[in-house]
Amino acid sequence: MPSPDTAVRRTDYTPPAYLIDTVDLAFDLDPGNTTVTNRMRVRRNPQAAGAALLLHGQELELLGIEIDGAPCHDHRLTPDGLLIEHPPQDFELRLVTRCHPQENTSLMGLYVSNGNFFTQCEAEGFRKITYFLDRPDVMATYTVTLRADRQRYPILLANGNLAEQGELPDGRHYAVWHDPFKKPSYLFAVVAGQLVCREERIRIGSGEEKLLQVWVEPRDLPKTAHAMASLIHAIRWDEQRFGLALDLERFMIVAVSDFNMGAMENKGLNVFNTKYVLADAQTATDVDYGNIEAVVGHEYFHNWTGNRVTCRDWFQLSLKEGLTVFRDQEFSADMMGTESGRAVKRIEDVRVLRQAQFPEDAGPMAHPVRPDSYVEINNFYTVTVYEKGAEVVRMYQTLLGRDGFRRGMDLYFARHDGQAVTCDDFRQAMADANGRDLTQFSRWYSQAGTPRVKVTGHHDAAARTYTLTLRQECPKVGVEMLPGTPDKLPFHIPFAVGLLDTSGHDLPLRLQGDDGAAATTLVLDFTEAEQRFTFVDIDEPPLPSLLRNFSAPVIVEHEYTVDELAFLMAHDSDPFNRWEAGQRLATRQLLAHVEAIRRGELPSVDTFVIDAFRQVLRDDTLDPAYRELALTLPGESYLGEQMDEIDPAAIHAARQYMRQRLATALHTEWLAAYHNHQTPGDYRPDAASAGQRGLKNLALSYLSELNDTHVTQTAQVQYEHANNMTDRLAALNALVNGGQSAQEAASAALAEFYSRFEQEPLAIDKWFALQAMQRATGAQRVIDTIRTLLQHPAFTLKNPNRARALIFSFCAGNPAQFHAADGSGYAFWADQVLALDALNPQVAARLARVLDRWRKYTPALRGAMLDALNRVAAHQGLSKDVREIVDKAIG
């Protein structure tokens, strides 16, 4: 475990000893040596103690320091930065520093990508640009002057509004930008280089005109239309839904191919990974189009939830991220245009939560939505902070209603605009705006782990009542396993339920003692360790529909029979629970197959599963997108989490066996679905067309299990004639995973794909990822293909997208091959973690997380996994980022 001395603790928070009111930065941009002149107005914080001023700094050369115009000698450099021993109460501090952007492979601070300058400052990158109080509760107004060679860097961008620009001697030019809104340093941004933009002018509700720009490298300009449309939709939606308007004269998005994250919400100048900006029919899939809309919305929504109101400290990260993920989920759901579309979006979001966050909640890196400590803050940009944090925000809306949630948001902004605040401040605004006591609800922020809710029901025919008994428990996880940690207290869980009669209709629900109007779905305030809820006027034993719309991030335990699950799958009016019933049915069958395979027995698929799939496949009243989700089997990683010991090989064999049986038994239905859901004409990325393609390509995926030459020919024809990347990539996937009969066609298609898209980096990322996640064919191991691809001229570890496409896809997305019995996958993982750590510790730490659940695997695998972890841990010079992960994993 990391040393307690290295950890930063939430309870140790103290206000900054000094505040910075204004920052005037001047950059003389040069890729080898950039000089930054920083003039700040600094004053002692009347709310804090301490006489010395420590300014954070990393990898900087200090060229000069002055206080109120005179050289300062009362300072020294420390491992953490620049210490000024006895500064005045109120003064101007001038610092001149030099940094080296071209050498900055960490992609934090100021760096160079493809000859252009970019910055990434969240969480602690600004300290690589200049010495500063690099913490989110120090907010200042910024004026930035950029100077550079005009020919090499014709575009000079920074936060806020353009105040001035002009020419300088020797072929140089300058631009001055001023941001009128106070912001913390993590929201600072600079971009300079050979860029062009798509721009639009719109009027917001007040009548003001706003300039919108999407900046990219010249060859990518045609791929920016969807990002611009998404931005306009987000601006309109936020003003309509929450009354939040764009507050600057302009709003800019800039795309860069070298980026550690998806995007960054710098005030008025969002910097994006190209993956979440660039799209056209030939290079982007339906999923890409949806992700672009969501991420553009997410970063724009941060303008208020994160920028105008920001975090007091990094422990409050979910204050902005969880809230903004919830907002982008609601935005994307509304953009779907139908109730069925909203249901599809909800299911997709919950799948991410269950597949990624629930395992994190049970592993060594488990932490509350508001963590209590960290060694490296970059390691806490997690699915717990983001996705579980979004579920916590959603629970406010479930408890308070949509109007009540809006009242809480309005009060939150009225109280805290321009401030750095806490999760408790947000909760208090919600409580005060609605007259509710939400004290117990705060446990969602302070207690880690996924609560389990056991549900039993009892019908009393004489009293005409039905009683649900709910019991909640949440086991200790992560550091809570240490001796002396107190037991957890009950959560406040909004538990939405419905009751179905024997015809499948919703019963009107009213709780005993409640004189209000009956409803078909009730949200129960579940606040005790065990609680009973009695419904009146229930004449016959009902079938409960539990946790409708996934109203809380919990695991529900209820002993449904197979017949009951099939009934819910056919009749439940709640579309999420209808999908959930099918997933439970499939999971139960698959886990039985896993146990049979582990015993050396031949599994068999029960007819009720095939019949249930057939019914959904034939049900044309259901949207194609919904049917695609309902007919997709639970993933291998999710199935592993349902087992006491994960056996990746047996899970893979069981899932493949079931896919093959479904392919064979429903061959006619799959063919009909494939032919009936074609999308002729020009490509359209709208939800309805994407749903048609999704179901069609799922059918092709199932048919490819048959090792049939006719299916191979169908996939070849689709590949050759596809007018969009969604269909082309689906056909290529069917060929690559189509068995021996498709191997020759697969090799030819892979070669053609690379030749066609060699100059399209995002398409080539897909090419690498598809091969990394393929199933093994014959004697060819996927690990051997991966090692060959590492030597491919298009592969580089320095680009995070490319590393994620090949290495992460194999290690995290191909469990059967990665967890090979010979340990080759683990040796490969260790090699790549160490190689990445030398270049980019933040990306390396993400890869390191792949083995943090090693204790849950079979004994045969655990030893090799631990050996790989120990090998990484023993490496000299390991970054703090990776050290925290592997030490916590090893324990």
UniProtKB/TrEMBL annotation:
GO biological process: proteolysis
Domain Peptidase M1 alanyl aminopeptidase Ig-like fold: 449-558
Catalytic activity: Release of an N-terminal amino acid, Xaa-|-Yaa- from a peptide, amide or arylamide. Xaa is preferably Ala, but may be most amino acids including Pro (slow action). When a terminal hydrophobic residue is followed by a prolyl residue, the two may be released as an intact Xaa-Pro dipeptide
Domain (Aminopeptidase N-like N-terminal): residue spans on this chain: 93-187
Top EC class for this record: hydrolase
Residues in Peptidase M1 membrane alanine aminopeptidase domain copies: 228-444
An example Gene Ontology molecular-function term: metallopeptidase activity
Ranges where the Peptidase M1 alanyl aminopeptidase C-terminal domain occurs: 563-890
Gene3D superfamilies reported for this sequence: 2.60.40.1840, 3.30.2010.30, Neutral Protease Domain 2 (1.10.390.10), Peptidase M1, alanyl aminopeptidase, C-terminal domain (1.25.50.10), tricorn interacting facor f3 domain (2.60.40.1730)
Cofactor(s) listed: Zn(2+)
InterPro entries from the UniProt entry: Aminopeptidase_N-like_N, Aminopeptidase_N-like_N_sf, PepN_Ig-like_sf, Peptidase_M1, Peptidase_M1_dom, Peptidase_M1_pepN, Peptidase_M1_pepN_C, Peptidase_M1_pepN_C_sf
Keywords: Aminopeptidase, Hydrolase, Metal-binding, Metalloprotease, Protease, Zinc
Family in the record: Belongs to the peptidase M1 family.
Function: Aminopeptidase N is involved in the degradation of intracellular peptides generated by protein breakdown during normal growth as well as in response to nutrient starvation.
Entry protein name: Aminopeptidase N
Gene: pepN
